[in-house]
Amino acid sequence: MAAPALAMIPSLAKTGLGIIQTGAGLFTRKPKRPTYSIPTAVTQATDATRQQANLTQRPGASAAESVIQTNAANTVDTIQNVGGSASNVMQGLMNAQSQQNRAMLGEQAKNEAFRYQSFQDNIRSLQTLGRYQDKAWDWNQGQKYIEKRDRRDALINAGLNNMIGGAEDATSIDLLGQMNPN
């Protein structure tokens, strides 16, 4: 009877190991994991493109409009100083006004093109930021959950397998002992 009891020691140890592994899996505290931060350059670029997209006109547009108005005023002054027939003066003034209007429309078109381009740049910047935010969430939240779940499951499964294996071994040894009492 002592021989079968001695033969059961490894299977009991295996079962005990299984119980310890299962308990460790159930009560495991996870190690501190690093977090992923969105690169500062990406957030700064997004902020800059957002500010640019909120501008109502391109940088330097006010100065260009001021030059157009100054040139128109100088042209009108020159026409008035030169004089000539009333119809020539009137035609010169109308031409100056027409030229100023075309120049101002050109500036408005440039401003609209700038605003559209700024809007497109902002969209691209937000898309880039979104990819980094997604990566940050995956690293900081999703992967932690998966790692913790997988580690816990692995410990529990290993423990259960060892407990079942130990019990099966003990049962086999007991059956062999009963079949061969000597």
Write the H/E string, N to C.
Answer: HHHHH
> How many β-strand runs?
0
Largest sheet features: none
- What's the quaternary structure here? single chain
Helix content: over 70%
Low-confidence stretches are none
Question: What is the count of helical runs?
Answer: 5
How many domains comprise the coordinates?
Answer: 1
Instruction: Tell me the span between the first and last alpha carbons.
Output: 8 Å
Shape by Cα distribution? rod-shaped
User: For the residues shown, what is the average pLDDT?
Assistant: 81
Rounded Rg: 42 Å
User: Structural class given helices, strands, pairing?
Assistant: mainly alpha
Strand percentage lies at under 5%
Question: Please, could you describe this protein's structure?
Answer:
This protein has 182 residues and is an all-alpha fold. It has one domain (2-179). Helix content is 85%, strand content 0%. The protein has helices at residues 2-7, 9-26, 40-53, 61-82, 86-179. Helix 2 (9-26) runs antiparallel to helix 5, helix 3 (40-53) packs antiparallel against helix 5 and helix 4 packs antiparallel against helix 5 (86-179). The longest helix has 94 residues, at 86-179. The N and C termini lie close together (8 Å).
